[in-house]
Amino acid sequence: ETGVTQTPRHLVMGMTNKKSLKCEQHLGHNAMYWYKQSAKKPLELMFVYSLEERVENNSVPSRFSPECPNSSHLFLHLHTLQPEDSALYLCASSHPRVGSSYNSPLHFGNGTRLTVT
Amino acid sequence: AQTVTQSQPEMSVQEAETVTLSCTYDTSESDYYLFWYKQPPSRQMILVIRQEAYKQQNATENRFSVNFQKAAKSFSLKISDSQLGDAAMYFCAYRSAGAQKLVFGQGTRLTINP
């Protein structure tokens, strides 16, 4: 049990498909993140939500659409993706609700391995 | 913008030996936090150790310790008595005080030879 659960673990989709990645955390955190991990590249921050509000959006193409309905759930909606979007998508959470500290580390899920065909 | 550099794409060490992974970062800030994460084949990123920039004492966690050189903007990870389970990708990461996001380096793949 990691505390941060991502589903599905693997996803293969065509360029015309619409799919969603799901992330759920049971750690009482109030910030959630989407990172993209491609081969031979540093992890790229895509989105950050704090208290269910988007606080950072790193120039991500509009074919990626995040949704944070509450502090425990985060989605990444995908549509008309490109083959170069194939990567490992990692969700993370941080900051306890009480006694928040910015040295609080990120807790990650196991990721969704996405392949766009 | 802050950047994190890990100059060693791959490292290997004999089991029970000691290995040091290097990390440098670029920032104009004085208050920040540094982390080392491990990513085994299971893909989950696991926190190994963290360091607050305002602390002069180097952090240690069992067999893992850091050499934090603030003036040189260097943050290396030393793994003592290496074990087969230490084999993984290791990522160095930086976080500004008051900021949400974590900036990662490119990672170092560590192999443990039995």
Key features of this structure:
heterodimer, A: 117 residues, mainly beta, four-stranded antiparallel sheet, globular, B: mainly beta, six-stranded mixed sheet, 0% helix
Describe, in plain words, how this protein is organized in 3D.
Chain A is built from no helices and eleven strands. Chain A is mainly β and 117 residues long. In chain A, the strands form two sheets. In chain A, strands 2, 4, 5, 6, 9, 10 and 11 form a seven-stranded mixed beta sheet that branches. Chain A has a four-stranded antiparallel beta sheet with strand order 1-3-8-7, with no helix packed on it. The model of chain A has no long low-confidence stretch (mean pLDDT 88). Chain B is mainly β and 114 residues long. In chain B, 0% of the residues lie in helices and 53% in strands. Chain B has strands at residues 3-5, 10-14, 19-21, 24-26, 32-39, 46-52, 60-61, 64-69, 74-79, 88-96, 103-104, 108-113. In chain B, the strands form three sheets. In chain B, strands 2, 5, 6, 10, 11 and 12 form a six-stranded mixed beta sheet that branches. Chain B has a four-stranded antiparallel beta sheet with strand order 3-9-8-7, with no helix packed on it.
* Largest sheet report of chain A: 7 strands, mixed
Q: Strand pairing plus helix content of chain A: what structural class?
A: mainly beta
Rg estimate of chain A, integer Å:
14 Å
Provide the residue-averaged pLDDT of chain A: 88
Provide the residue-averaged pLDDT of chain B: 94
Total of helices of chain B: 0
Count of helical regions of chain A: 0
> What series of H and E elements makes up the topology of chain B?
EEEEEEEEEEEE
Helical/strand content category of chain B: mainly beta
Global geometry of chain A: globular
Gap from first CA to last CA of chain B: 41 Å
Give the percentage of residues in beta strands of chain A.
over 45%
The strand count of chain A comes to 11
Taken from the alpha-carbon principal axes, the silhouette of chain B is: globular
Largest sheet of chain B: 6 strands, mixed
Number of strands of chain B: 12
**What is the percent of helical residues of chain B?**
under 10%
CA-based gyration radius of chain B: 14 Å
First and last CA, distance of chain A: 31 Å
